[in-house]
Structure formats: structure tokens, C-alpha cells
Amino acid sequence: MTKPSAPPQKRVRNPDAMRNRLLDVAAEAFQSLGYHNTSMHDVMRNAKATGGAVYHHFPSKKALGLAVIRERVAKAVEETWIEPVKSARVTREGILAVFDQLIAELDHGKRILGCPLNNLALELSLADPEFQIAIQEVFEQWRIAIAQKLRSDKSRGLLKKFEPEAFATFVVACLSGAMALAKASQNAKAIRACARQLARIM
Amino acid sequence: MTKPSAPPQKRVRNPDAMRNRLLDVAAEAFQSLGYHNTSMHDVMRNAKATGGAVYHHFPSKKALGLAVIRERVAKAVEETWIEPVKSARVTREGILAVFDQLIAELDHGKRILGCPLNNLALELSLADPEFQIAIQEVFEQWRIAIAQKLRSDKSRGLLKKFEPEAFATFVVACLSGAMALAKASQNAKAIRACARQLARIM
Question: Which one of B35, B136, B174, B186 makes the best mutation probe of the A interface by having the most chain A beta carbons within 10 Å?
Fold first, then answer.
């Protein structure tokens, strides 16, 4: 005998869990298929949600897209790119740790989906000014975190050659570009090359 | 009195012109709206073509996408990124000339559409293996051209610090990433910062 499925009202009692599930499902679909290539119906079906539940939390696809950028992509950038840099002794070590982590994941034969921020940035920055601002804010958080760390290195005499603000932009560009090349080639060669070059110049 | 439009058979007499027009229209739409966000019908309408003409030249949207990558995106990369480097005295000057050209265009208040290769790379590399290979080939042409120039610099004693192959990958990543940041922020600040940093390390 199969277990009867939970009555719908049980789900409604935990709207936060449903909202989170919708965001998780949408973030994954936007990352692997793209925003335009994912329909609200796909999200509904994959999250096992009703149309009513989806539209209760996200009255439009754009609302869902903005929430994915602000709550999922921003979080992924924080965890993958920002946190290892913040917690490192110096910026250089933090950035190399990020690269090593990426290379280790890619060498495990995973398909290279690319950086979720980069993917959505290129797809959506022109589509809508609100998307553009939301995406720019995440890039800014990332850039500011690296610049802060570089300033701290500088104040301790550990960074001599570079001006923290511009160099932080450069590092973000290198990481984004390396991820784009890795996605296009489906191998980690570009990430290794960029890690090596950044390590040499820092 | 308005001029009567040309009878359809006149168009058929110049199939190359029609094919080129379809590629131009599709390349522009893929660049500004994205591949998935452009329909074959959009291309047909904007090229003022019949459905028959479109499907004669491109029996599927994928065939059109591949032709845009191989014949339009590859050409744009050749003209914008490769040619100025090839014709420069040394790689460093060629790369800075590319950046200056970009900055001049962006400062004229154009919307920043981003690098067409990068845009399609992130949208299509996972969508289909043939797209991925076509995109990878264009990135490779670009990388190889820079590596050749760097080797030539090296043989003349003008490049001391870097290994040409890996450094060429790094330069391509920096340019791609800088374009992604410029698109996300809709200003040229990231391109200026990256140009300055690359100039300092080369």
C-alpha cells in the first residue's frame, strides 16, 4: 500500500518551505537551461507545486528571476567566491583556494555549468533594468569584498604593486572570464592557466 | 504612388544576399535578445524574408545558430579582438588598442551588448554539443592568435615574464570577463580598470 500524499492544506502551512523550494528549483533551471528557456510551468512541475502556490509567492516570472538573483545567486557568490577570500590570511591565498576548489570539482567530471552570476548577467542585463541593477549589485558585493581584503593586505604591507579598487575589478573579471572559458571548453584548463597567471602577478 | 515591391522570384535570384541578410538579422537578434529569446519567425520578419527562404537556407534554428557562430561571431572576434593584436608592433600595444577602441565606443553612449562570443558561449555551451564545439573553436582561434603574437614577442626579447600559451588564455579570460562586467554595469569602468592592470603586468 502506498502512503497517501499529504493533503494540500499541509503544504500551505509552511509557505517558507514552498518559497525556498521554488527558488531552489528555479535557480537550478536558470543555471542549466537559462532564464528564457525555463517556463513558470517547468518550475511549478519540478517543484511539485500548484500554479496557485507559484503565483502566490511569485506573481510574475520576473519576480521569480529577481528573487533568484538576490537570494540564490548572491548567496552562491558569497559562499563560493567571497567567503574563502575573506577567511584567507591574504587575498592571494584566498583566490588560489577558490580556484583550487573549482578545479577539484571540475576534475570530478561534473558538467561545467559556469558561474551562475555570469550566466544570468549575460542573459539578463539588457533584458530589463531591474535585472541589470540586481546583477550589478551582486558583482559589486563580490568586487567590494576583494577590494576590502586587498586594502587590508596593503595596510599590512602584503600588497605592494596594485591599487586595491582597480585590481579587485581585474580579479573579478579574470574569474568570470575563466569560468566562461571553462564552460565553453568543458574542461578546467583555462581555470588552471588563469590561477597560475594571477598567482604570478600578485 | 508607392513603388511596387519586387516580385518574389527576383529575390530568389540572389540566394547569397538573402542568406547573408538572414545571418545579419539573426546575429543581431541573438546578440541583443539571446538565442532562445529569438524565434525563427522574428528572423523571418526582420529580414523581410518568406518562411520558405528561411528554411531553404537554414532548415532548423540550430542550423541558423551554428552558422551565426561560425560566420558572424567568428568574424566579429577576428575583426574586433584578433586583427588589432596581429597588426600591432607588440602584443601589449595590440591589446591596449582593443581596449581603447571598446572604451571609445562605450563612451559614445552605446548600450553595452557585450561580447557576442561570450554571450552565446554562456547561453549555448550546455544546450548542445555542436554549439559547444563551434563556440570553443572561436575561443581557440582567438587564444591561438594571441599566443602566436606573444611567442613572436618572446623570440624578439620583448616578453620576458610569461609563458605564451597560458598567458594568452589569461588575456582572453580578462577580456571576456571585463566585457561581462561592462554589460552588467552598463558602463566602461571595468574595461578601463582591466586595461590598466593588464598594461601594468605585461
Answer: B174
Model pLDDT, residue A89: 95
Note whether A42 contacts B: Cβ–Cβ < 8 A: no
The helix, strand and coil proportions of chain B, stated in percent and rounded to the nearest 5, come to 75, 0, 25
CATH of the domain at B175: 1.10.357.10
Range(s) of the domain holding residue B118: 66-201
| pLDDT tens per residue, range B158-167 | 887 788 999 9
- Domains identified in chain A, total number: 2
Instruction: Mark whether A54 and A79 lie in a shared domain.
Output: no
Q: Helix and strand tally (H, E) in chain A?
A: 12, 0
Query: What are the helix (H) ranges across A78-185?
Result: 83-86, 91-107, 116-124, 129-155, 164-185
- Consecutive 10-residue averages of pLDDT for chain A (202 residues): 47 79 96 92 96 95 97 95 95 93 80 86 89 95 96 89 91 94 90 90 86
The answer to whether residue A139 neighbours chain B at the CB level (below 8 Å) is: yes
Q: Nearest residue of B to residue A201 by CA position?
A: B201
Mean pLDDT score, B26-44: 94
